[in-house]
Design a protein that fits this description.
This protein is mainly α and about 300 residues long. The protein has two domains: about 15-30 and about 110-295, Hypothetical protein af1432 (Orthogonal Bundle); about 30-110, no CATH class. Helix content is about 50%, strand content about 0%. It has 14 helices and no strands. The chain has helices spanning about 20-25, 35-40, 50-55, 60-70, 85-110, 125-140, 150-160, 165, 180-190, 190-200, 205-215, 225-240, 260-265, 275-285. The protein is globular and about 55 Å long. The model is unreliable at about 1-5 (pLDDT under 50). The structure holds fe (ii) ion (2 copies). One fe (ii) ion (FE2) binds near residues 160, 192 and 217.
Length: about 300
């Protein structure tokens, strides 16, 4: 059960968007419509692998990619997998959900950012995926289900989608660098979180996801910050410990100290005593992250 009661979205068209920005948004690869269908499915109290198959089979490109992933070295199966039911049995429902959401968002997450300080080829994908996996692990540890695990994962995958637009308005001669929200707003008229709100509303993603992403750089003091935004913020702080997406290979050896973030954990109902388990779970889900990257 979701407890998003703190704030809500503004009406569409709430802010004048610069025409050049609109053109760039229109040029973005579209988000597969199956994302919304899957989110809808995972919100049901009961659903089975068969329900997932029914949605997957509507999208032949997704079927092809799913079978490729199931046949990849990742699952170490010697026998060739030819059908969705076989793939489901092999990878399991939990992995299937991760694969489906990763694959159906990868047209966006595989794009490269020229001006932000990510590793050039797949740094943006690694950062987005890591925040998604960490947000999912975090939600699963929380005493109250504030967001579904899949919503948290999709929110993480798409949280920096606004950067794909801002990137086109930054000065490439300045080189790759950390870029502030103010600098983004000056370049594109809105920062990447505000742009994401606009984009994700157009794509009709659930309000919980849009709010989480809109506020993922909001301050601590904001009483109006949604639970999803708090989850995304913590997922970013935790994955930031390992600088994922800034360079390769991923090194998860640095210790995460939760004490400076005790208030953030407390507002989500997670005592500091539970953070070692959480960090263990997140490390588990991020181990071998590079191997999940889709090959051409
Ligand atoms: Fe981010
Ligand atoms: Fe961000």
């Amino acid at each position: 059960m979701t407890t998003e009661t703190t704030t809500s979205l503004a009406a569409p068209g709430w802010r004048a968007v610069n025409l050049d920005v609109l053109k760039r948004i229109e040029a973005l690869p579209s988000l597969s419509t199956v994302v919304n269908e899957f989110l809808e499915l995972t919100r049901r109290e009961f659903f089975t692998a068969k329900d997932f198959e029914a949605v997957i089979s509507k999208d032949q490109a997704l079927v092809a990619r799913l079978l490729r992933v199931a046949n990849s070295a990742l699952f170490g199966n010697s026998r060739r997998i030819h059908s969705i039911p076989e793939a489901v049995v092999l990878v399991g429902l939990e992995n299937l959900k991760k694969i489906v959401f990763s694959v159906s968002t990868e047209g966006l997450t595989r794009l490269r950012l020229r001006n932000y300080n990510y590793e050039p080829s797949r740094g943006y994908w690694m950062h987005s995926t890591a925040v998604g996996l960490a947000a999912r692990a975090l939600v699963e540890m929380l005493p109250q289900k504030m967001l579904h695990g899949e919503e948290a994962f999709v929110a993480g995958l798409l949280h920096d989608v606004g950067k794909l637009i801002v990137d086109d308005f930054l000065d490439p001669t300045a080189g790759k660098r950390p870029i502030t929200l103010a600098e983004e707003a000056e370049a594109a008229g809105m920062n990447h979180a505000e742009l994401a709100e606009f984009i994700l509303q157009q794509w009709r993603l659930p309000e919980t996801i849009v709010l989480a992403i809109r506020d993922h750089h909001g301050g601590d003091e904001s009483a109006a910050m949604s639970d999803g935004a708090k989850i995304l913020q913590l997922a970013q702080i935790i994955t930031g410990t390992w600088s994922i997406g800034r360079g390769e290979p991923v090194d998860l050896s640095a210790d995460f100290d939760p004490t400076p973030h005790a208030d953030r954990f407390a507002t989500l109902g997670l005592p500091l005593g539970k953070t070692p388990q959480l960090i263990w779970d997140i490390r588990q889900s991020l181990t071998g992250l590079e191997k999940l990257y889709p090959e051409d």
